[in-house]
Design brief:
binds flavin-adenine dinucleotide; 24% strand; 5-stranded parallel sheet; FAD/NAD(P)-binding domain; protoporphyrinogen ix oxidase, domain 3; alpha/beta; 7-stranded mixed sheet
Amino acid sequence: MKNQILILGGGLTGLSAGYVLSKSGFDIAVFESESAVGGLSKTIEKNGFRFDLGGHRFFTTDEKTDRFVRELMSGELLSVSRSSKIYLRNKFFDYPLNPANAIFGLGIPVTARIITDYSYEKLKGLFKAKENISLEDWVVSNFGRTMFDIYFKEYSEKVWGIDCRRISAEWVAQRIKGLSLSKAVKNAFFKFSGKDLPTLADRFVYPQLGIGRISERLKEEIEQKNKVFTDTAVEQINHYNNMIESIVVRDHAGLREVCSKELISSMPLTKMVGMMNPAPPARIMEAASKLKFRDLVVMAIMVNRKRVTDQTWIYIPEKKIPFGRIHEPTNWSGKMAPEGKTIIVMEFFSFKGDNIWNQTDEKLTDITIEHLETLGFIRKDEVIDSVVIRAAKAYPLFEVGYKEKCDEIYDYLKRFGNLHIAGRSGMFRYYNMDHAIESGISTAEKIINKGEYVIKQQDDFTEPVLAGN
Ligand SMILES: Cc1cc2nc3c(=O)[nH]c(=O)nc-3n(C[C@H](O)[C@H](O)[C@H](O)COP(=O)(O)OP(=O)(O)OC[C@H]3O[C@@H](n4cnc5c(N)ncnc54)[C@H](O)[C@@H]3O)c2cc1C
């Protein structure tokens, strides 16, 4: 079928593109290597317990994306209020920062140091503008050294697995654009939440049966006219004369070749580049080999109790506790566990092949329960069941210098007249779900309008640096 538009990856980006094209009457096919759609935004179900791969809140400032999701999910959405804490020095602090809580929690001397450091950085900035190359540079100049040491350093290094001096400032400046200590404090005092600082918005939207429902709904709609092939991994992308001609996929029946009119790739950029046949020039392969992802191990513990916490997320910066974030899905929707029971989910940031990744499920479960007991959350005899999920390529890793490598790859891919890269993994960008959906929709519209091939740059990144999304 020479006229088909092929979509690689059945996450939110690929499915949103497929949905828009399908509704517009195009002949499309989506290929997803996993047995279920959703990618990073999927919900796992076991015996009536449900959990996302790290709690996923949907929030957007873009009206079109908001309408898209609300229409698709009609009747399934809840509006949830966000209440999060940071667990530090054996205490819980409000997140976003609440000045009174921070002052009494950290003590007057530390608070005085925070204010002095911050004022010093601001004063210094008046005389000499400093170039912020790393995450450390950026946070110190916007929040001061003490805030960096207490709130940012350990958590960021836990999330990324590398020193803050090696994490690119470009990423963090986009990610918490417009946020500084004075604005965070102002927000906490005057409750500007959600208006001038979307970073700190305190309500979000969530499907009753978990975030994965958005992808399931998109699949249902696409399948009214077209096909979403799960358990079907793309292995090769054939091109000739600057056009993608076909792909080779593997499913239960073996290998098959599928011809392509237009190709949308939302699978990881580095993986896609490695599948091109003939292979790209050595300098492009070299650039792709330097782009790394951070992986994630998700541990869900099912508990024989109605609730363990009353929080949306609990951030755990300290390295002595091996997981970085906890959430309790039943606080997001009561339907995430059977009546009278609950589930808590821990995120372990990891690199594929490291100690956490290679740990047996049994050992990881024991370690987790031990820590949860020490934190005072549960008792071992309350645990009903557990599940461990290993999610590879969860976060594009923004090491200093990543942008030049990305730009080199984008520049090379531009020559292919019918190739469109989109989404978080596909473009190696720190997209949230709303950006992924927007990226899928705009790629589909570009094809519908037969516009020029342009890699869209989105710059409205608004999540807080502690979010770890
Ligand atoms: C822990 C965590 C928490 C997050 N929390 C939030 C949140 O609260 N709010 C928010 O808005 N966003 C959140 N995000 C971000 C959100 O998950 C992503 O923005 C979104 O899921 C990206 O969708 P995507 O389709 O671009 O990429 P992906 O979900 O990565 O989809 C790519 C797809 O390609 C498939 N694929 C890979 N290789 C192949 C192959 N060879 N053949 C076929 N298919 C292949 C993959 O299986 C996958 O399904 C979070 C992310 C993480 C990791």
